[in-house]
Amino acid sequence: MANRGPSYGLSREVQQKIDRQYDPELEQVLVRWILAQCGGDVAQPAPGRDGFQQWLKDGTVLCRLINSLHPRGQGPVAKIQASTMAFKQMEQISQFLQAAERYGIAATDIFQTVDLWEGKNMACVQRTLMNLGSLAVAKGDGLFVGDPNWFPKKSQENRRIFSEDKLKEGQSVIGLQMGTNRGASQAGMTGYGMPRQIL
Predict the structure, then answer these.
(1) What is the pTM of this model?
(2) DSSP character for 170?
């Protein structure tokens, strides 16, 4: 990637706004989860945003993470290898992103490869990993390792099935959103054109 100098003006303000969205507490939760999920062969990152970015930058930790959420031998990323070459690192990050989308994360919740590799939007990387953790907890397939309370709980579908009689009965009821006709009468109304009598 190209080396970019410092940004100025509006670009700098936008980057500062993005940087303020990064959550150091969420970083600690994500690091604890990734270390627990991947096992003992993953090294602890240096604290802080830059340390977190350098830890995930080559894509090996992310690929091990997504593989650990699948049964042994069925991981979506077949070949994980550490490399110092930029295109190899970015390729592994994109393999993780594709596997995360197949796992069930919405495409709108997934970060772009350059967000992580260049460290431009680490808050988006955090949101993707948080959504991945929430989804792993919600699946309940026994492959999640860690405390389920680390992540927000995903809503579950609660489908209701009504009989035809119940559905027809509901069509004849006036919903309270439309108002009510109880207590409505024309008592006290005067004919049109007559002034109202106030005593």
Answers:
(1) 0.70
(2) H
